[in-house]
Amino acid sequence: MDISLRFTDRGIDFAIENGDLAMDAGLRTPILVSLFSDARIEDSADLEYPETDPRGWWADDFQDSRMGSRLWLYERAKITPAVVADIRDTGEAALEWILRDGFAADITVDVQRLNRDSLLMRVEIDRGDASRGADLWEAMSDRLLTFETPLLQVQLLTR
Q1: What phi and psi values does residue 38 have, to the nearest 5 degrees?
Q2: Which residues are CB-neighbours of 137 under 8 A, at least 6 positions away?
Q3: What is d(CA 51, CA 141) in angstroms, rounded to the nearest whole number?
Q4: How many other C-beta atoms can be found within 10 angstroms of the C-beta atom of residue 105?
Q5: For 22-81, what is each residue's pLDDT tens digit?
Q6: Who wins on pLDDT, 12 or 39?
Q7: Cα(8)–Cα(85) distance, integer angstroms
Q8: Are strands 144-148 and 23-24 parallel, antiparallel or unpaired?
């Protein structure tokens, strides 16, 4: 069980219910962390001026897999077909642990342009015959969740 996170007008924050931290026993919070935590960039040459911070979580240096995604690299990017494809690949990579750890049988990430300045990322997670995480799936009361940032609207569908 994780502390529940929610979107606010200033970003992601802890959810509070009845004056206490709310808990999330499902996949919502781990997916939020996977997509919207800044993964470290390995090569600073991939950073666009004036960005110099490789970001990321300090503990990534001490574990085999990295946390978060590189969606932050596209905050100021011009939306081109190549950027749309890169964002789809970035979303898939950030959520790959769900397949690797046996929590789902399939994940489909589709990204399309909503308008001149924003994209829609539709994430479908199919449990299939995955044997791990039955409690995570049972705790998913909503089968369609939506998260929104200035660049990206994410629709998460679980089945």
Answers
A1: -80, 115
A2: 26, 27, 127, 158
A3: 40
A4: 14
A5: 776 677 788 888 898 888 877 766 677 677 777 777 667 777 777 789 898 888 889 999
A6: 39
A7: 27
A8: unpaired
